[in-house]
Amino acid sequence: MKMAELMQHWLPQRYDYNLVVVGAGAAGLVSAYLSAAAGARVALVEQAQMGGDCLNRGCVPSKALIRSAHLAQQMRQADHYGLPGQDVDVDFAQVMERVQQTIRTIEPHDSVERYQSLGVECFHGQAHLLSGHEVAVGDRVLTTRRIVLATGATPVVPELAGLDSVDYYTSDTIWSLRQKPRRLIVVGGGPIGCELSQAFNRLGSQVVQVVHGERLLKREDRAVCELVQQVFHDEGVELCLNCDLQHVARQQDEIVLTCHVGDEERTVHGDALLFAVGRQPMTQGFGFEVLGGTVDRRGALQADGTLRTSVPSIYCAGDVVGPYQFTHMAAHQAATASLNALFDRIWRRRVDVSLVPWTTFVDPEVARVGLNEQDALRQKIAYEVTRLDYGELDRAVTDTTTPGWIQVLTVPGKDTILGVTIVGAHAGDCLAEFVLAMKNGLGLKKILATIHVYPTLAEGNKLVAGEWQRRHFPAALKPWLKRFHDWMRRVS
Ligand SMILES: Cc1cc2nc3c(=O)[nH]c(=O)nc-3n(C[C@H](O)[C@H](O)[C@H](O)COP(=O)(O)OP(=O)(O)OC[C@H]3O[C@@H](n4cnc5c(N)ncnc54)[C@H](O)[C@@H]3O)c2cc1C
Ligand SMILES: NC(=O)c1ccc[n+]([C@@H]2O[C@H](COP(=O)([O-])OP(=O)(O)OC[C@H]3O[C@@H](n4cnc5c(N)ncnc54)[C@H](O)[C@@H]3O)[C@@H](O)[C@H]2O)c1
């Protein structure tokens, strides 16, 4: 039998679906929704909760927790605002209940009911790939022309001697806590470790943050990390940098984590332990590898620029492929993957990762798009720096939300923006204007020429553009202007 005949033998005459999407997190939901909106017949398979990580264990609960922690901190610092400062008696169980309430409020948006109403057929169960065109869910086999894998990622737990003798948390399980840990050990200096260390500390846990590297948030410039570390230190988060984990043990009622810091041994004591050491793409256990699907050296699905995997009928999006593990990237990739999957006979586009913004929601927030100084130096890209401190921004002063700054890197001598880092209150919101500008090739002069509302933090974007303009005013023009104005003062 020839190959074509063989294929004909096992492929159905007509597929049930144009697209089956595996996983109903940010990537899966957007893939399913867009495909249904484009008129395709779509099935969405989720083994656990609709909304995936972002809604149930990630962005939503963490930002709800951070909000309570921020308010507790503001209450303590009420004297900065002319009000009596106070000790805050945090009802931790209530805070965690609010976190769950927040999830419940958003939940309908990601629910089966909503997606069914949008024209997506939802299946609950673990998807298993039987071929590049067949997905089993329980007893059912869904046949489909294309598949989008959006299976996400799971928290990494380091291999550590003694780990089986202690209970520990990850970002998946920490939300079940109802009793505040008196002393919390957080392992990891990335966004999860930093956001949760500060939040738990502000809610009254004594936090020790144990970090492998020499600083927190190592993707950011050193000055940014130093400010965050200073704030953490001032608020009482104990930082253990350059730590190599050795072993962990339960001793009486406490957890004892032993690390090497250089040649020295250091022990860290706590009542609870949280690992935040990265998230591993979910590529195994649903038949992809059996079909010859490959993963890259990061352990993420291997895909081309159009998000097609090594199995031609299967595309992918979100944390399972990365490399940027953000909800907004999952959604962005989902749009590319699903439309490519539906229309690949006639048209495919590449996913655009040239401009990926992100914000780490520590206080002060750290937001970035494009290059920072350490990237520019590493890539040997020439740049100029223009910086505006929040202290020069009236709204930051009236709100007592200093410290912070806006730093813009531009092409030397030009207003073309290479990258922006904003550190400070609402940095993530303020960044959006720069993302739009960069995406559309607008330089700082265009931002300067745009009327910004006074007094807002976003006005800082215009002020930093003004600072750039002041420094680039053509020097040769100055004597001419002086002569012109001298002449104009003559009384004729
Ligand atoms: C604590 C924390 C805070 C975060 N904060 C932010 C933030 O502020 N901003 C931001 O942009 N990002 C944040 N993130 C990252 C963000 O949550 C993820 O990037 C995003 O959720 C990834 O979406 P996804 O659809 O790729 O994966 P997921 O949301 O993980 O969805 C994958 C889904 O697939 C399902 N699944 C897996 N295998 C199968 C199978 N075989 N069959 C059926 N279903 C399957 C899973 O059950 C899951 O529901 C945070 C993450 C964490 C953990
Ligand atoms: N605000 C946001 O957008 C946001 C918030 C949270 C999470 N996220 C996403 O989730 C992803 C995962 O976050 P994360 O913070 O877990 O991972 P990460 O990879 O960003 O950081 C992991 C940290 O753990 C440290 N580490 C790794 N192994 C270690 C070990 N054995 N001992 C001690 N330290 C160790 C690393 O040095 C690093 O500091 C991020 O990449 C991010 O994209 C985003």
Q: Kindly state the percentage of residues in helix.
A: 25-40%
Assign the CATH class of the largest domain. Answer: Alpha Beta
Distance between the termini: 103 Å
Instruction: Tell me how many strands there are.
Output: 21
Q: Specify the CATH homologous superfamily of the largest domain.
A: FAD/NAD(P)-binding domain
CATH architecture term of the largest domain: 3-Layer(bba) Sandwich
Mean pLDDT: 96
Strand residue percentage: 15-25%
Largest sheet report = 7 strands, mixed
Structural class: alpha/beta
Radius of gyration: 26 Å
Instruction: Give a list of the ligands.
Output: flavin-adenine dinucleotide, nicotinamide-adenine-dinucleotide
Number of domains: 3
Report on the structure:
Keywords: Disulfide bond, FAD, Flavoprotein, NAD, NADP, Nucleotide-binding, Oxidoreductase, Redox-active center. Belongs to the class-I pyridine nucleotide-disulfide oxidoreductase family. Its cofactor is FAD. InterPro entries: FAD/NAD-bd_sf, FAD/NAD-binding_dom, FAD/NAD-linked_Rdtase_dimer_sf, Pyr_nuc-diS_OxRdtase, Pyr_nucl-diS_OxRdtase_dimer, Pyr_OxRdtase_I_AS. This is Pyridine nucleotide-disulphide oxidoreductase dimerisation region. The chain is α/β, with parallel strands linked by helices and 492 residues long. It folds into three domains: 156 residues, FAD/NAD(P)-binding domain (3-Layer(bba) Sandwich); 116 residues, FAD/NAD(P)-binding domain (3-Layer(bba) Sandwich), CATH 3.50.50; 108 residues, Enolase-like, domain 1, CATH 3.30.390.30. Helix content is 33%, strand content 23%. It has 15 helices and 21 strands. Strands 1, 2, 3, 4, 5, 6 and 16 form a seven-stranded mixed β-sheet that branches. Helix 2 runs parallel beside helix 9. The site of nicotinamide-adenine-dinucleotide has 23 residues, from helix 7 and strand 17. The site of flavin-adenine dinucleotide has 37 residues, from helix 2, strand 2, helix 3, helix 4 and helix 9.
